[in-house]
Amino acid sequence: MQALQPKRQRIPVSQLPNDFIFGINTVGEALTAGGLRRLFVSAGDSKRLQKLVEEAQAAKIPVERLEDAPWFSALKEFAHQGVAGITRPFLGSLLGEVVPQLPETAAVLLVDGVNDPQNLGAVIRCAAAAGAAVVLPKHGVAPINATVHKVSAGATYRTPIILGENLAQSIAFLKKHGFWVAALDAHSGESMFSFEFPRRTAFIVGSEERGVRRLLKDKSDYRLTIPMQAGVESLNLGVSAALALFFFRAYWERGGSA
């Protein structure tokens, strides 16, 4: 009688490696950005996965079978699409290096508190789609982890993200470099529908629970609100950020007219 093979013990999610990422788009963006250190791929004939393997091998990045990884069982909670990776530590960018490189017409998004990595990933994806840099505070924000990378579809590697900032100091710095600052407010302010956006605008969005802090509102040049039907108090953080950034972009795509 053949001996039974011991069942592999389930590894908890907390035991996944540091700087772990997963998903085809996310791993592909990390590879393109030069941030990938190791690639793990499932066996199969997926052309997208084969392309990732070829690009990794060309960059001399080790490629291993995903199912052989000691932490593979922890991936059952994730839609990993048959690919994962280990990256270099995500350090983000420096505000003093990013701002001088921005074009004459530019938007920056300051996020005043978001603890949910799903929301943070969605916000970063919106900012990347609109061509905006993102500024995150030192406290009160989710870390840039595998979930943030995945929800952003790898946009974390495509758009400038400034980490660990004092937002009040960031506002002062942006103003010195020609930015006007607009805080989003669910209850009062100028309507975003008719607002004449400055050519360089820094938006502040706050958490759904408390909004933008009073200190930051007081340092802003404008308060903007998104008109809504009666009975709806506020919008999701990611939706509010997307509306602000794309209203700004549409305004200047039309040559600066509402």
Please render the helix and strand layout as text.
Blueprint: E1 20-22, H1 24-32, E2 36-41, H2 47-58, E3 63-65, E4 83-87, H3 95-98, E5 106-112, H4 117-130, E6 133-137, H5 146-151, E7 161-165, H6 167-176, E8 180-184, E9 190-191, E10 200-206, H7 214-219, E11 222-225, H8 237-253
Parallel strand pairs: 2-3, 5-6, 5-10, 6-7, 8-10, 8-11, 9-11
Antiparallel strand pairs: 1-4, 2-4
Helix pairs in contact: 1-2, 4-8
Which fold name fills CATH's third level, the topology of the largest domain?
Answer: Alpha/beta knot
Our count of domains comes out at 2
Question: How is the quaternary structure best described?
Answer: single chain
Supply the helix-strand structural class.
alpha/beta
* Helix content bin: 25-40%
Globular, elongated, flat, extended or rod-shaped: what is the shape?
A: elongated
CATH level-1 class of the largest domain: Alpha Beta
Sheet of most strands: 7 strands, parallel
User: What's the arrangement of strands in the largest beta sheet?
Assistant: 7-6-5-10-8-11-9
Mean pLDDT: 88
CATH architecture of the largest domain: 3-Layer(aba) Sandwich
| Succession of helices and strands | EHEHEEHEHEHEHEEEHEH
Q: What is the percentage of strand-forming residues?
A: 15-25%
Q: Using the CA coordinates, give the radius of gyration.
A: 21 Å
